[in-house]
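Schema walk-through. Below, the input block comes first and the output block second. Nothing else is stored per chain. Lengths vary across the set, and this one has 122 residues.
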Amino acid sequence: MQLPKHSAKCCSRIMLKLCAAPGCGKEEWMRSMQKYCKFHMIAANRIRARKDNTVKGNNVEIKHNFKDVTTVLRSCGTCGHDYIVTLHPRVTVYPGHCEKHRNPHQRAEYARLKRQVVGVSL
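--- output ---
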């Protein structure tokens, strides 16, 4: 038979504690296991930490307020050719390169070939 880790006595111990919600700091009588005051016990009243929405890698952030799907012509960051990007509502991160240069290996290969061509022509 397994015994419970916490006895009922442990959880029912009432003490004066600070609310753990950021910026609250209320001092309230709560059980030893409680973390939040009565207001912040409701999950909707707690401030949630937002995800970091920084653009990573070789993507481009295009902020827009379009309600419908729209297509936009952009130039590739590697070769300069134009490619089509489809903008969707509530989406802000899009690729910064054309289909030929989306992955890093293809971009490095393009740069290597371009250096060889420039080196030969000089």
